[in-house]
Amino acid sequence: MLAISPTDRLFVLTGAGVSAESGIPTFRGVNGLWRNYRIEEVASPHAWRRDPRLVWEFYSMRRRVASSAKPNPAHIALTKLEQRLGDRLFLCTQNVDDLHEQAGSVRVVHMHGELFKSRCDSCNRPPFGDTALYDPPADLPRCKCGGGIRPHICWFGEVPFELERIFRSLDECSIFMAVGTSGVVEPAASFVAHVGGRVRTIYVGAEEPANATAFTECLIGKAGEILPALLPT
Ligand code: NAD
């Protein structure tokens, strides 16, 4: 069990591995989402300009998969931790699914965006909730301003959301934990190096991440088994 004192502040970074036991494929695993699509053809501003239909086909597929997924014990353990720590827990996810929220977490920061939101690619209308599937041959959604409606996702080559808040919380934390993330996608992969040396750093995941040497401890196994035993409720 992780000892957390009344003055500790915890920063938890989650990745695709935390949703794997809910049936959402990770990006690089055997059933990885990228196996049927080439990253640059579906998840970049260039892809959006070149073939928005293919981009929406990919994100409609992801919406379909995520809409039937349910939170697993790892999400639930993190929700219970938030209920205990309140704003002393900063939960930052690279996941675009809503399983942390479905489990009951209320302060989730989605640094790579949210699958069930869309926004205009031209005007500054705020992102809005959107569960629709825009599979071809459906018409592509358009904004009143004439712009295209795109997924509210941080694509390769774009700047992740809320970085200022994230780095402030990294500077304030006394324990850093990463769960189910392969440690290759920047800037999240460097969060541990940013806090390292100053705070305790723990990795929980199915295998050693690429940045394993930056952690003080690596706990290898399924998030849904390790987190309920590790985190106080
Ligand atoms: P990744 O696919 O690169 O790595 C997933 C990691 O999870 C691997 O290291 C793997 O060993 C581990 N893992 C697999 N099953 C696990 C389990 N049951 N318990 C614990 N760990 C497990 O994922 P990443 O590092 O998050 O990749 C970054 C990008 O992938 C992000 O941009 C993210 O937005 C995106 N992504 C999101 C989702 C989602 O929203 N659910 C799904 C796939 C990818």
Q: What features would you describe in this structure?
A:
It is a single chain. With 233 residues, the chain is α/β, with parallel strands linked by helices. It has two domains: 10-24 and 71-112 and 160-230, TPP-binding domain (Rossmann fold, 3-Layer(aba) Sandwich); 30-68 and 118-153, SIR2/SIRT2 'Small Domain' (2-Layer Sandwich). It contains nine helices and nine strands. The protein has helices at residues 17-20, 39-42, 45-50, 52-67, 73-85, 99-103, 163-172, 191-195, 223-230, and strands spanning 10-14, 89-93, 108-110, 113-120, 128-129, 149-153, 175-179, 200-205, 217-220. Strands 3-2-1-7-8-9 form a six-stranded parallel beta sheet, sandwiched between helices. A three-stranded antiparallel beta sheet has the order 5-4-6, covered by helices on one side. Helix 5 (73-85) runs parallel beside helix 9 (223-230). The chain is globular. The chain starts with 9 loop residues before the first strand and ends with a helix. Nicotinamide-adenine-dinucleotide binds at residues 15-17, 19-21, 24, 26-29, 33, 94-97, 112, 180-182, 185, 205-207, 209, 222-223.
